[in-house]
Design a protein that fits this description.
By secondary structure, this protein is α+β, with helices and mostly antiparallel strands. The chain has 25 helices and eight strands. Strands 1, 2, 3, 4, 5, 6, 7 and 8 form an eight-stranded antiparallel sheet that branches. Helix 22 packs antiparallel against helix 23 and helix 22 packs parallel to helix 24. The protein is globular. It starts with a helix and ends with a helix.
């Protein structure tokens, strides 16, 4: 109902804020008793807002946009499709700024002149936008507002197409400043509105002629009835005259825009008041304040995620995930479900689940960063939730403080489009659901489902996930039954879709990803350890295998000290008998996170979740050793609380 009221896509900051507030309320507050009268009012409210949202006047401006690369072999598509004067103007500026003799060599990897890379290029003059898949567009998309001051603000999806995956510091055209153009077809609804801009635009006049107008500073022109049906092109090629455009709507559009937003707000509040028990509003305070504070901090640290559409770095995984997600959504638009499920790879090489998350984000949030931002708003809350399994409230806040630098690193990685922060947030959320002694069977099942999603997004978490399943199964069998343990862990079975995909499309059994066996990731394979031990026993201390193993373990760095500290604290806690099922379970899971780094690349972004969990477990043991006396009765209390599951 919330999504129906706000409408898809949720691509403005106001609508995103309303969505987050509504979801937090739904999760935090219990559901109210639903009477037939409440149901009738809810249905009428929902129907009214949907009808008014579609019937009230809006600008509905047809927009077309695309990248402009004059030197690409297939760029004759633009010369054949754009007005001759517009194309000649674009090409003239392009040739002046990027002279032919200074353009990069198309045979060099990363050059924009070899962008196609064997893929089928976009075959239309105006790039297909995925900003609103539910709204049919004549060119790229239909917009009700025009307000951008750069390529990222324009939110043109072409910036993150997989075709334009060029990179390199010595390339003449940088992805962040790609040359582009945008076109608006003026209609009768925006007559008497002001079109304001800086930079150069080409305003169509009578008989198809275009008037070039260059504004060095922001200036406006009134749209008149003679402009109806005319086209307005903005040129974003010349860095000396960056393009910025804004439509200041007429009084009628302003009025109905305010009415539309007011109706949405009223309907949303009405539905939430009818559906939830607001007498327990205190349950809402903590998560609302927590997520609100996280949003404020994120706004200061990664402001790019709150507006525009981030231009992802070429050559990095983030652009690949986004590009694959865009292709998946296109397959769905054309009704090609098989290719959508294939996900652009016969056998998963890049992180399997991230591409599908990106496709879902495009459906719900359009070409914005809001999908990943929504996940990041819950990351500190998930860290806090895991800490609360072992610690009181104030100590849990201390854990957040200690891990804040790692959380900030996750925000930076999310901005770059990496899969790691999503996988880490899912895994921490699964920990809260699975290790919480008060969780019932349905919560345990859902926790294991979320755990499977975390492995789907970040396969390197599989060992820690399996250890967590082992811990929870043992505890559930001990306190409940073997059948309950099987039912609760069955949610993890969804991970079997990954090897099934690889076998169906790639005709080979690969458990998770083919990237697990490449030398760039597998730095020290088990065979190298075995051979290094043999060389050490035989006295061959200068062997290559021994050098590889020693060098790799040296890169493990300070993680050795962390592991030794954790094991020392665990041994001390065991000796004093203050360990618990949750502390031991978290310790085992944390060790499982560090284990792959004995063989695989141990870069910081792969270790961050392990470090966060190490901080939680370490502080947990310190708290138990300092506060609780010998022969504590905590295990007895945990067992009593665990019976709530039944």
């Amino acid at each position: 109902m919330v999504v129906a009221v706000i409408g898809l896509p949720v691509n403005t900051l106001l609508h995103f804020t309303l969505l987050v507030a509504a979801l937090v309320s739904i999760v935090a507050l219990p559901v109210a008793d639903f009477t037939s009268r409440k149901a009738m009012v809810s249905i009428l409210t929902l129907a009214t807002v949907i009808i008014l949202n579609h019937s009230l006047p809006r600008a509905a401006i047809e927009e077309g946009h695309n990248l402009f690369l004059a030197d690409v072999v297939r760029s004759n598509l633009l010369s054949d499709s754009l007005p001759a004067f517009v194309y000649s103007r674009l090409k003239k500026q392009f040739d002046q700024i990027y002279p032919l003799d200074k353009r990069c060599d198309p045979h060099i990897p990363g050059c924009w002149r070899s962008v196609w890379g064997g893929r089928t290029p976009i075959k239309t003059a105006y790039a297909q936008s995925l900003d609103d898949v539910f709204r049919k567009a004549k060119y790229s998309r239909v917009v009700d507002q025009i307000d951008f001051s750069g390529l990222a603000d324009l939110r043109g999806g072409f910036v993150n197409e997989i075709y334009y995956h060029w990179w390199g510091h010595d390339i003449d055209i940088k992805r962040a400043s790609m040359p582009y153009f945008v076109m608006y077809e003026l209609n009768e609804r925006i007559v008497d509105s002001l079109m304001c801009w800086s930079g150069e635009v080409l305003w169509e006049q009578e008989q198809g002629h275009f008037e070039p107008i260059l504004n060095e500073s922001f200036a406006c022109k009134t749209i008149t009835s003679s402009d109806i049906g005319k086209r307005l092109y903005g040129l974003g090629v010349d860095p000396a005259h960056p393009l910025a455009m804004q439509l200041q709507p007429n009084a009628k559009l302003k009025f109905f825009g305010l009415v539309r937003e007011g109706i949405k707000l009223f309907a949303l509040v009405t539905l939430l008041m009818l559906s939830l028990r607001w007498d327990e509003w205190r349950n809402l305070l903590f998560p609302a304040i927590f997520i609100g504070a996280t949003g404020i901090i994120a706004r200061m640290y990664v402001p790019e995620m709150f507006h525009g559409y981030t231009i992802l770095i070429g050559g990095n995984d983030g652009l690949t995930h986004e590009g694959y997600g865009r292709e998946i959504l296109r397959h769905l638009q054309y009704g090609n479900l098989v290719n959508a499920l294939r996900g652009e790879e016969d056998m998963f090489y890049f992180m399997p689940g991230m591409r599908y998350f990106r496709a879902l984000g495009l459906v719900v949030f359009g070409e914005t960063n809001f999908g990943y931002l929504a996940v990041m708003l819950t990351l500190p809350l998930a860290v806090y939730g895991v800490a609360r399994l072992l610690l009181p409230r104030y100590w849990s806040f201390a854990v957040l403080t200690l891990g804040s630098s790692l959380i900030f690193q996750c925000l930076s990685m999310a901005r770059a489009g990496y899969a790691d922060p999503l996988g880490y947030t899912l895994f921490l959320s699964a920990l809260v659901l699975i290790l919480n002694p008060a969780s019932k069977l349905e919560s345990l099942w859902f926790g294991h489902f979320v755990l499977a999603l975390s492995v789907f997004v970040r396969p390197n978490l599989v060992i820690a996930a399996l250890l967590l399943i082992l811990v929870q199964s043992w505890q559930t069998t001990r306190l409940m039954s073997l059948r309950a343990a099987f039912l609760s862990t069955s949610g993890f079975g969804v991970i079997l879709l990954v090897p099934m995909h690889n076998y169906v499309f790639g005709h080979r059994f690969v458990p998770l990803t083919a990237a697990a066996n490449i030398s760039e990731n597998l730095k020290a394979p088990p065979s190298a350890y075995i051979q290094a031990i043999k060389d050490a026993v035989s006295g061959n201390w200068a062997s290559e295998n021994l050098e590889v193993i020693v060098g790799h373990l040296h890169k493990f760095g300070s993680s050795w000290a962390i592991l030794c500290l954790l094991l020392g604290l665990a041994a001390w806690a065991y000796r004093r008998r203050v360990q618990t099922y949750m502390s031991n379970g978290l310790l085992l899971v944390t060790l499982g996170m560090f284990l792959p780094f004995l063989f695989y690349d141990a870069s910081l972004r792969y270790r961050m979740l392990a470090w966060l969990c190490a901080i939680i477990v370490g502080v947990g043991y310190i708290f138990m050793l300092r506060i609780w006396p010998r022969n504590t009765a905590l295990d007895v209390r945990i067992k009593k609380r665990s019976r709530i599951r039944t």
